[in-house]
Amino acid sequence: MTDTNMSSSAISTTTSPGPPPAADQSPGTTPKKTIKAWTYTKGGLPRNCLHLTTDHPYPEFPPPSQQAPGSGNESPKEPEEWLLVKVTYAALNPGEVLLMNLLPPLMSLAFSKSAGVPQVPVYDLTGTVLDSSPSSEEADSSSRASDDDEGASSSSKFKKGSKVVAFLPVGFILSSKSGALQEVISFPAKYAVLLPDKVASPSASGASSSSSSGANTTQGGIDKLAAGLFLAGCTALAQIRDAALQPGQKVLVYGASGGIGSMAVQLAREAVGPEGKVVGVCSTRNLKPVFELGCCDFVMDYINPATIFTGEVEQDTIVEGAGSNQEGRTTKETIEQALAGMYDAEEVQFDAIIDCYGSQTLYNYSAGYLKSDGVYSACGIHANGYGYAPILASGWKLMINALWPRTKWLGGTGRTWKAASMFDPGREMMEYLVGLFSEGKLRVLVDSEWAFEDVLSGYEVLLSGRARGKIVIRVGGA
Ligand SMILES: NC(=O)c1ccc[n+]([C@@H]2O[C@H](COP(=O)([O-])OP(=O)(O)OC[C@H]3O[C@@H](n4cnc5c(N)ncnc54)[C@H](OP(=O)(O)O)[C@@H]3O)[C@@H](O)[C@H]2O)c1
After folding, report:
1. Ranges of the chain whose pLDDT falls below 70
2. Which of 258, 337, 349, 457 could form a disulfide bond with 333, CB atoms 3.0-4.6 angstroms apart?
3. What is the CATH number of the domain that holds 77?
4. Closest Cα to atom 21, ligand 1: which residue?
């Protein structure tokens, strides 16, 4: 699938529960402003629980008494700044499907008050600031009034009309019932970063000079691409930082074509530099798009690991191998066997593995290709579904990997396992990624773009588990 607008699929449109419109429109009262939003009240997969609501309440700022005091450099008495944002694009992530499927039944058991309150999903968005509270003018005058206050709210840089990219943490989404799949949203300014007007042309910082999956540097393109930046990008960045990569090191990125993986290969190259080595792993159809991100020395195919993809020709992997296991290798081998065949000698093994899919098998056999002091840095363990049983099974494996002694004497792999958890990345990570993005050093691979009414089709692609990069939803357009 390419980056195109998809045709409309069947959608379910409802009005949200609540008083009938007449109650809001009695003579002399102004009709309540409403917006379109995708909401759910009961658990299920998107096609079974998400509804397009046309009369979702227009968001408001919480009263000042309920705006938590700001954090960081801000004065403790300063109310936290909130933004009212017209959403341009949103991007989908597997984690929100998990919340959709599992949380409503749990929430209704634990907190009966929240049962039936419509929840808007989705963490990632770009948009335009419509208003702020306190307004940017008030924030400016209060910062001028304070004595040499260098620490005046860092968020006062948001003005009406500012373009922003934001990541709404799960805690905010659940407590406010407010996510990115709505036309207008209000949220604390600390979750947003200003979007650049322009981004530099992508520079292939790695070994490859090929870079053909074109960057779209118009503002519409920037809004669309940046929507996919934060949840996946911050998770990739957390994984790279967990691995403590150093210039000149050799790193394997598994699941290199997904939302996280496509950014992890680029961040890995940024960390190891041109003198390092980055090897991506994905399925056959994604070899070229991953290689064209311009940061992998070569890409391996986990379906047919006997060949490596170097952009022009597929070569026999044996040319790469320096290990001693080359004899008797067949084209039927698994990716773990192929890697062990290529990298079994300690001096050629990887310094780190960044697993952006969550393969338990790749970790189990990692002693065959990961240095004994190397780090296996995972996004988690892949769950075979969104129900309780697969999630508990993957949680169990995750716990065992983290806690089981590494020593092989006790059945360990002999390799350190770390897992990223991305609940709230904070400004430093978000600003770092926007910086790379605007310098053309971090590209967002977009699987497909969908109209707001076609969100369910976008989720079908996500649920296939085969998205090539991010799935973005055009909520308002740029
Ligand atoms: N730890 C955290 O805080 C955190 C945060 C976000 C997401 N996650 C988790 O991280 C995982 C990836 O997230 P994402 O947003 O990148 O997902 P995604 O965009 O849907 O990507 C999925 C990718 O997995 C690849 N894939 C499918 N089967 C595979 C296999 N057998 N071996 C290797 N790769 C395979 C697919 O590529 P091919 O078609 O090329 O195989 C696809 O590109 C999800 O499980 C998600 O829940 C964790």
Report:
1. 1-28, 65-78, 105-115, 135-156, 202-220, 312-331, 478
2. 337
3. 3.90.180.10
4. 258
